[in-house]
Amino acid sequence: MCLMFAFGRGVxxxxxxxxxxxxxxxxxxxxxxxxxxxxxxxxxxxxxLREWVAERHGVDASRVMITPGAxxxxxxxxxxxxxxxxxxxxxxxxxxxxxxxxxxxxxxxxVRQLDLGARWPGPVPAAERRCVYAVPTFRNPDGATMPLPExxxxxxxxxxxxxxxxxxxxxxxxxxxxxxxxxxRRLGGLDRVVHVSSFSKTVCPGLRVGYVITDARRIGLLxxxxxxxxxxxxxxxxxxxxxxxxxEPGGPGGLDRAVERMRTALAARADRLCGLLRDRLxxxxxxxxxxxxxxxxxxxxxxTAADVVRAARRRDVDVAAGTGFFLTGGxxxxxxxxxxxxxxxxxxxxxxxxxxxxxxxxxxxxxQGPC
Length: 371
Fold this sequence. Notes:
Blueprint (H helix, E strand, L loop, with lengths): L4 E2 L12 H14 L1 H4 L9 H11 L6 E4 L2 H12 L6 E5 L5 H8 L4 E4 L15 E6 L13 H13 L3 E5 L15 H5 L4 E6 L11 E4 L2 H15 L4 H12 L8 H26 L13 E5 L6 H10 L2 E2 L1 E2 L11 E5 L5 H19 L10
Parallel strand pairs: 1-10, 3-4, 3-5, 5-6, 6-7
Antiparallel strand pairs: 2-8, 7-8, 9-12, 11-12
Helix pairs in contact: 1-9, 4-5, 4-8, 10-12, 11-12
InterPro entries: Aminotransferase_I/II_large, Class-I_PLP-dep_aminotransf, PyrdxlP-dep_Trfase, PyrdxlP-dep_Trfase_major, PyrdxlP-dep_Trfase_small
Protein name: 2-aminoadipate aminotransferase
Keywords: Aminotransferase, Pyridoxal phosphate, Transferase
């Protein structure tokens, strides 16, 4: 469906992408690295990019794998950790990333949704294979960050049950305010944590380049699973990503410059969206995000997210219903992405959303046809 105002998907608007820097990185890759980027390459990823990620995170390259995006990394981790069948179990937060729920849905495993940072209620039922999936920093969908005591409690409980934790962490560097918290990887060690991240949120989602950091034995299992699944990732995209994140002193590219540019723009957009919502939708509740891409909006009762989504589509506005991020519940919530719309477009988009909430309250639930 073609909708004019895009608050639904977690992507940056094109003006936030450093197109000139990516073009320069592509030219450099073609000039300097054509032998490495034209072939099938390696299941574990482009070696220079693996080395760069390893150095940035202070680990050996044997503990790094480059993947076609973070979601592919999560899927491979689920395959190697819990596989398929009723004897396996995945513990997820409440709410959690909807694509993670979709990734596990076809596996036939048991999914338990709970407050991962709290004391888990009672003994965890026995399962042959179990793991935890969490987005602890600026969580998709609600932008929440798990406090340090809860991170430590989660890792303690996981360790006591010999449970591996998948840490999906693509928003960590996009903090607007406050102090960063240590990652699960730093707190729990690589033998108990599969750390996943991506350049999609900081550089460009079209690159489809993510990475995994975990212990070397598990990297071997993930690489074998990748080789069975897609042979090798794109060496072309990874070579471009490598040249971009390295950058040139005083020249284009560089991950730190990209992060700073993205962080500054996102903070301004988050402030703009919050101000508009306070003015146009005072009956809705939300917390100002401290980072990431998302704002979590609680609708006034008895309005439901499903009704607002339908009404918003009629007004050319795309928003995500909260129900997609829960196994059950979430009917009162919307996820709004503030990365996808420039500030100058937000006022009209929020005006239309406010009108859609009024429509939903009045019972206007008919759907818009395709455009």
